[in-house]
Amino acid sequence: MRVLVVGGYGLIGLEIARRISGAGHDVSCLGRSAKRGQALMPSAVWVEADLAALTRPDSWLPHLASIDVVINAAGALQDGLHDNLVGVQEHAIVALVKACAQAEVKKFIQISAPGAAPETETTFLATKGRADAAVMASELGWTIFRPGLVIAPNAYGAGALLRALAAIPLVQPVLLPNARLQCISIDDVCDAVLRAVGEDLSGQVFDLMESNAHSFEEIVLQVRRWLGFSEPKLVLALPRWIGSGAALLADLAGWFGWRAPFRSTALKVLERNVTGDPSGWAHVAGGPLGTLECALARYPATRQERIFARGHLIFPFLILILAAFWIVSGLLGLTQSADAIRLLTDRSVTLPVATGAVFVGSFVDLLIGAAFLFRGMLRRAVWLSTTVCILYLVAGTILTPDLWADPLGPIVKIVPVIGLALAVAALAEDR
Question: Is it the case that residue 120 has pLDDT exceeding 90?
């Protein structure tokens, strides 16, 4: 069969696409970047499109020619600079369902979420719920899966958050330690979807998750052991206000293009628990799904996972340090311009050149600092800052070579700034 996976290089979508392809089906995937998708899964046919723009059935019809099965694995946690939940999770999917009916698609498989309902309190679950309702009201051969906390080798969203929390040395801070969650391995999700492709499971909604729930504290500690980090000296249950403050900062970062895993939506979802009733799928599959322990055992942690966990933990701080460095440097250049100009003219630089260098340099510094704050500008900020640093080193060596003798002087400090920017570039890869 010909299968279209919507959200083809997301955490769940990419693994589903690989499994479906491995089972012998022809797979097409839809994502924001066909180039990125092709790099991740060359065997698939990639369709480049922004879901938020596909809000009419006729926008979808060209992508559904000869398609037998549509699997919707697209989604986002919260609105932000690049994310529009109502557009992506509701309007686009409602239009897709109508287009599938017109194109006579045989099956529609929807990846939803536990607790999804049209009138629930978070936009994430409400838009998922309204899309689910549209699917269930259609005449398609539909199946809806609602996976619990997905454990996978790749780390996006909750998986990345768990790894970062587990990497905190000595102590283990945990917010909402008593929140209850039921987990599932990505392999079990793919098994269920593949079964729905090959069998008639139409008209059914399944919660995909292990039978027993774990506390959030227990899951974090298990992930910590799985990664091979030492047991914490102390487990700290953080008060709710700390989580709210952190979530608000992450919400703000979302409007700069950063998809932080712990935002207000994640906090609200945790508070209401991530649980469900897996008995329906257990009846179909002939037994319960694997536990959290089984899921972690499937993907043994190696040095790469530990490096990722530590890197993901410190990455936001590296960004803020670099942004602050360049912004403060630019502001100091403007507020102390007279001293900077005098420093250059004392070394035989003409006044016009010295004045231009100070003011242009200050504005460039401010531009670089601002660019570091935007996710979409990050790589350009890294290379621009590195280039400017090299120019500063060359110019400083020619015009003020004596400053090299100051161990904490303005020239020596440039070298670690270059190193820090290159470290950020190494950690900056997105999905």
Answer: no
Phi, psi for residue 343 in degrees, rounded to 5: -60, -40
pTM of the model: 0.89
Q: Give the pLDDT confidence of 222-244 residue by residue, as tens digits.
A: 999 999 999 999 999 999 999 99
Q: Return the amino acid letter for 403.
A: L
Q: What is the 3-state secondary structure (H, E, C) of the chain?
A: CEEEEECCCCHHHHHHHHHHHHCCCEEEEEECCHHHHHHHCCCCEEEECCHHHCCCHHHHHHHHCCCCEEEECCCCCCCECCECHHHHHHHHHHHHHHHHHHCCCCEEEEECCCCCCCCCCCHHHHHHHHHHHHHHHCCCEEEEEEECEEECCCCCCHHHHHHHHHCCCCEEEEECCCCEECEEEHHHHHHHHHHHHHCCCCCEEEEECCCCCEEHHHHHHHHHHHHCCCCCCEEEEECHHHHHHHHHHHHHHHCCCCCCCCCHHHHHHHHCCECCCCHHHHHHHCCCCCCHHHHHHHCCCCHHHHHHHHHHHHHHHHHHHHHHHHHHHHHHHHHCHHHHHHHHHCCCCCHHHHHHHHHHHHHHHHHHHHHHHCHHHHHHHHHHHHHHHHHHHHHHHHHCHHHHHCCCCCCCCHHHHHHHHHHHHHHCCCC
Q: Residue 273 and residue 265: Cα distance in Å, rounded?
A: 12
Which residue type is seen at 48? E
pLDDT at residue 431 in the model? 63
Q: Enumerate the CATH 3.40.50.720 domain ranges in the chain, comma separated.
A: 2-301
Query: Above 70 in pLDDT, residue 417?
Result: yes
Lowest-confidence segment of 108-112, 149-153, 266-270, 406-410 by average pLDDT: 406-410
Pick from 200-209, 246-255, 259-268, 356-365 the range whose average pLDDT is largest. Answer: 200-209
Q: Which amino acid is at 136?
A: M
What are the tens digits of pLDDT across the range 381-401? Answer: 999 999 999 998 888 788 778
Q: Summarize the confidence of residues 147-171 as an average pLDDT.
A: 92
Using alpha carbons, select from 430, 415, 424 the residue that is nearest to residue 318. Answer: 424
Domain 2-301 belongs to what topology? Answer: Rossmann fold (3.40.50)
pLDDT at 398: 82
